[in-house]
Specification:
This protein is an alpha/beta fold. The protein has three domains: about 150 residues, no CATH class; about 160 residues, ANL, N-terminal domain (Rossmann fold); about 80 residues, 2-Layer Sandwich (GMP Synthetase, Chain A, domain 3). It contains ten helices and 21 strands. The model has no long low-confidence stretch (mean pLDDT about 90).
Length: about 450
Amino acid sequence: MSVRHSIPAPWLDSERLPGLNGRAARRLRQCIEHPDAPYFTGRSGHWLSAQNIRQLLADKAAYQSPGQPWLASFLSRCRQKVPHYRNYPWHLNLDDFPCTNRSDLSRNIAAFVPDDIEVGQLIAYETSGTTGHPLTVPSLPLVAARYHCFHERILGWHGIDLQSLQGDTGVMLVGDQQRCFTYASVLPYWHDKTLLKINLNPADWPEPCARGRYIDACKPLLMTGDPRSLSTLLGMEFEHKPVAILSTSMTLLQGLKDRLIRRFGCPVINVYSMNEAGPIAADDGSGRGLRLVQPTMQVDVLNRNDQPAGPQNRGEITLTGGFNHCLPLLRYRTGDYACLVRDEQGRCYLQQLDGRPPVRYKTADGWLNNVDITHLLQPFGLAQYQLHQDQRGGLRLRVEGEVDQTALESALVQTFGPGYPVCIAGYRGATEKLIQYTSDYSGAHDG
């Protein structure tokens, strides 16, 4: 006779939520069973042991003491443990090492994972990025939790002490996509506050008005999302005002930032981040630009010859180090451009950042977020692609590699509808950054 083991309710799931206590379980259940709650599409947890949490607290203390030597030990680990770096010219200076980029990671991510990482514990994050190179980023539960340390540091620059804030819901991550992985979890390193990832698409809710009521019921201390989803918040009715809003993933335009500040009366903080490296720089309120966040990451701006661009000169943002020890980055060219400046107190800022602008696409039925385009194209296994919409709505998709163009064109035509002709063309991989999503259509960059 076999015994069938059922999956426990999320607020009783001690496998995904080790050390789950009564307070955390109660908060989680209230969020999930609330009558206005969204239809959560997935289940997630922190997976952190008590030892992990102790290590996280030690990491946070270390991150508050920048300037401690770390580069020599980091390079030694790269040389000894990371397959891709073993053949580097280690007798040369760091500035003479080869550079890497996203296409290198996309081709063989396993070669960048150190030998001493326990593969069975890895978490894989899938991301399309903006360069058209789909990528799986290796991580661990402890690495994912370290984001909180940097968010705490960023908010501290704005006079906000996260640990002293009172409330049951710590963070609400908001998306606005046709399909989105959503879940509810708890944060044991932040007084068991809940973490909610929601999708503002009305189809994910009992009714459209439930979205605002749910936000008012949960009262998240922090809200974070990309400019598209944050713009959607402005069109919704609710009274709650978070302590701060973090904007990530895409360029935050000043007009949208001003509107968010007027509506919510709190700091709206632009964070430059990427899945490969986590938060890199953020607005500290000084007006000097985006201040570097990670004390164990060296940020350079390089010219076309892989050499420093020089003070006040624009160059490609290039990373060495970082908090994700599952993916050590060594002279990693991001494809984004900025100037790197240092103030009189030695703090470093990125200025004139040319990052990843938000884009939406006009269809016969309205608009589509570029993330929804990514979902549409994922089944075709494209190695690299670029989609452009012209002023009249016509679409040009450039793809690399073998693809069923008939099926691909059919999918695009069905999605965009009549009046939006589709042209698919091949191309050879570009040596410079390929902006994945572009548009000349009026309103594509609104918000």
